[in-house]
Amino acid sequence: MKSLEKKSNRNFLNMDYITKKDIEDIRDNYLKKASLIHKHIVICAGTGCISNGSLLVYKAISESLIQAGLNNVIKLSLDVHDDNKSVYVSRSGCQGFCAQGPLLTIYPDNVMYVGVKPQDAAEIIQKTVVNDEVIDRLLYVNPANKQKGKSISDIPFYSMQNRLVLGECGIVDPESIEEYISHGGYVAAEKALNVLSDKEICDMIMQSGLRGRGGGGFLTGKKWDITRLTEGDKKYVICNGDEGDPGAFMDRSLMEGNPHRIIEGMIIAAKAVNANEAYIYVRAEYPLAVARMQKAVEDALKLGVLGTNVFGSGHEINIHVMEGAGAFVCGEETALIGSIEGKRGMPNRKPPYPAQKGLFGKSTVINNVETLATIPLIISNGAEWHNSIGTEKSKGTKIFALTGHVANTGLIEVPFGTTLNKIIYSIGGGVEHNTQSAGHKKFKAVQVGGPSGGCIPEYLFDTIVDYDSVTATGAIMGSGGLVVMDENTCMVDMARFFLDFTQKESCGKCTFCRVGTKRMLEILTRITQGEGRDGDIELLEELCEQIRTSSLCGLGQTAPNPVLTTLKYFRHEYEAHIYNKKCPAHNCKKLLTYTIETEKCTGCTVCAKNCPTTAISGERKLPHLIDQSLCIKCGACFSKCKFEAITLS
Amino acid sequence: MSNPLRYSVILQANIEIMRIERVPVVQENALSDDIDLALIDPILEHYAGLNGAVIPVLQKIQAVYGYLPKSAIHKAADVLMISASSIFGVATFYSQFSLKPKGKNIIKICAGTACHVKYSKTLIDLVHEKLKTGESNNTTDDGLFTVEIVSCLGACGLAPVMVVNEHVNGMVTSKMCSEIIDEIIRKEKQS
Q: Are B144 and B103 in contact (CB under 8 A)?
């Protein structure tokens, strides 16, 4: 009975499974309806824009449409329209340009508005939708040359990118499977299941040169081929969405913005290794990603692209969405497998590799979200196409989360081989314009690869990004977090920050990782508090080497990287802290001294009023004085003084 | 080994390193559970006998009570036929699980890299000072607030980020942070 019900819901012609023709029909039907639409308004509903109020904008736009006498189309798949008044308003996943949110794009004109507020809605409808006028004040202004960008292609942040994997992310409605299909979705999965053999798929992925995007950079095709050739009655596919690197959010954006692409990649992987059960492990800190993945899996099952007889190939594929419980180490594949099995997420020794003995003791292929999202593109466009992008050993494009002290923070995708200069200056728009600081600051470094990576100094910004060039600097590619730091960032404090993180997240299995990172953290904390001793640097170097060589998993092996790279490029900062008791970046509180310049002080008493410890004394209209024994270096006086009379040293 | 006192000191030091301190078990709290255990019957029934059920079960139990009551864990152990010690092992390993009741309002401050370079430490200090909380006592005495410092919320483009009861606040300044907390306190006093 149940299957009959399902069949009637699906409304297929005469089959009990979905066929290529059904997919094409859904697409054509959708495109036909889309062509009848007068305008299509896309409002970004990624986590960033929602927090800036994009859902209120969505509501206001919908209301304004009705007020203006237009037809508000909520779901394209349901309603039919043949007038000139229908406007389709949809919510998309993250469009990437988080710093400028909420973002609103109007198609087919490609007009993009940034920082849209609910009170702008009526004007947008009246001017842009009805009268085809562009509203000047809502356009993006390039901080470099003050030029306004009317359409997406006029904005350097977008025009300098090569958005392939992110392609539909930020355009399609992530909660609509029809919309994904209308953009060419599930065609590759159908091809993989009915046209290609498992060996052909593995060969194709191998020839494409695709390497795992999770950090290791292992050839995906090879991983699949090993799993394919392993004997076994049951195999598993796991999608690793436990994106724990602080400063990285590409997997979150993909899962929230285009979940069906990931499912399609998993279907292809399942066929390639002959698995019929798959898991998506999503980080617990991403509730929206969990919800969207769950909805996508349900929709795919309802439509028949998942289930017992996928595309009539006889292949059964089921996907479970598993929510993580908060442990960075679960990003490591054996730990993640342990976590799905319901254990503490502690890594195991390799070999045996998951391909040989993985989930529940069965052969398992485990790939990162971004890797799986690339797969359908390769199946559709061919291995040659993917192979032609990128550098000799790193093929394709890579998504980066560009954050920190850079003007345009957000999510970007560039081909391998792009220089850091281009990413940070051309796409990122250079150093952040901070109203609090006078004049321009300079860049100091960029942190690549999270807690396992390292800091690349400003003079190496002509380094190209690919697996090997980044590794040569001492950092690692990691999952793709790029945190840009300006000259006011203390590199010793950065190293301390990462050690604090790895020390907390170490699972405790290996002594060198568990105890060693704690000792390193203690030393680094001491240095930043002005209690550094002669010999500390050498001790750190020794500990780094021991931890690197004596830890079981990637977490421990790479934990020393932030310290090693900062020691390599910024040793003078360590020395200044230890020997001169100074922090050159004016960041470490205990090493700062605030003093009042008597010539500049007007005696306005603002500093004294704001001092929480009454360390500042002085008569009105007479120069004030800071009692250093009472000063807690909170910086309140420094930020309040209007006459720049307080100096830092 | 000859000196039992010395041995216990070493043991204690080791325990500290093994970061069992991450989720401290407060005995009084755990024992004074006054809860309706029948609420979790459907959850346990659904997962009994399934592979890898421990984490989803704990997540669902926490969704019911807001934390993991000791008695609920023992009940889960009985039904799922897994030793209570291994369930406690899982519950203390993952940062999402709490063995202590949480406050009414949960404030999460991101301490990821992007937020760190944008001085999220200032916000953390400010909130702790304002609510008289700290790393070890992260719930206020009146039970109104729990302050959690999380490693990354994935909203790095908006750093520094502070999440109040699932609402994400981006590019938070000290002033905004103070105002948000004052607003909650004001509302709580009214109701």
A: yes
